[in-house]
Amino acid sequence: METRFDEQGIVRANKPVGAGLYLMELEAEKTAHSIAPGQFVHLRLPRMEAHILRRPFSIYSATPENATIEILYQCVGFGTAHLSELLVGEVLDVMGPLGNTWHTPDSAERALLVGGGVGAAPLFMLAEELLGKGIAFDVVLGAQRKDALVCRTRFEALFMGGSVHAFSLAHANSTLFCATDDGSFGHGGFCTELSKDLLSKQAYDYMAVCGPEPMMRIAVQQALECDTPCEVSLEKRMACGVGACLSCVVDTSEGKKRSCVDGPVFDARKVVFA
């Protein structure tokens, strides 16, 4: 049976990490202990009583021992601008965990994770999960410029730091690749150029993609051409977050699905991109 909580989350940190990008740490004990890779939370912001709708956010990371979760978000409108102004100690209403998770095949030996912009955030907990399962994986991150690659250092630490020593020994061929549109870091160009090259040289048993829709469409086509099982995490505007309002409908080969309860992770072969 699905477990969902509605709890009061306390802001422990909320700081800018790039141009228009912020990282919030929330103390939310129940969610931190139950969230799975790929799931999201629905937040009701304080001092926004006139705006009754919650706002969905993917979970970047969870630290159960500290009872905290992290949310990486971009300021794109009134709600996220208000979110960026919240101070340490303020309280949010947190509903979660919501949605489904990534589904790595049990037989997978090697995976490819491709994240564009803040779409890299929902992939980080998946990377941690793959690490725990002993599955080798490569990561491709893309952004417009170097300072927008805000997830890079976290992934680098996963590959190289602390307790990852065993990972380095077991997965010596796993690599982090970066691309920037302006060429300021890593490959000069789109991250899908890197994923295409990797797929042409290496067989993968699973591919996970999240980012802007045009980028996902290209990456999915690459996976299909290589017959690589692929999933995508689709970020949609949501009103209720529990499947009642039909505001986050996704077109699939099996009909219309709700991103909040049938997703946000979908089998890429079944998604009908616009």
What does this structure look like?
The protein has helices spanning 29-34, 78-84, 121-133, 152-160, 165-170, 191-201, 213-225; strands at 5-18, 21-27, 40-44, 55-58, 61-63, 68-74, 91-98, 110-116, 136-143, 176-180, 187-188, 206-210, 230-233, 249-252, 255-258, 265-267. With 274 residues, it is α/β, with parallel strands linked by helices. The protein has a 7-stranded antiparallel beta sheet. α7 (213-225) links the parallel β12 (206-210) and β13. The radius of gyration is 18 Å and the shape is globular.
The value of Rg in angstroms is: 18 Å
Low-confidence stretches: 162-171
Q: Given the C-alpha coordinates, what overall shape results?
A: globular
Number of helices: 7
- Average pLDDT, to the nearest integer? 90
**How much helical structure, as a percent, in the residues?**
10-25%
Count all strands and give the number: 16
The ordered H/E elements are EEHEEEEHEEHEHHEEHEHEEEE
Name the beta content range.
25-35%
Structural classification: alpha/beta
Widest beta sheet: strand line-up = 4-3-7-1-2-6-5
Describe the largest sheet: 7 strands, antiparallel
What distance separates the N and C termini? 34 Å
Question: Which key terms come to mind for this protein?
Answer:
single chain; 274 residues; alpha/beta; 16 strands
Indicate the topology.
Blueprint: E1 5-18, E2 21-27, H1 29-34, E3 40-44, E4 55-58, E5 61-63, E6 68-74, H2 78-84, E7 91-98, E8 110-116, H3 121-133, E9 136-143, H4 152-160, H5 165-170, E10 176-180, E11 187-188, H6 191-201, E12 206-210, H7 213-225, E13 230-233, E14 249-252, E15 255-258, E16 265-267
Parallel strand pairs: 8-9, 8-12, 9-10, 10-11, 12-13
Antiparallel strand pairs: 1-2, 1-7, 2-6, 3-4, 3-7, 5-6, 13-16, 14-15
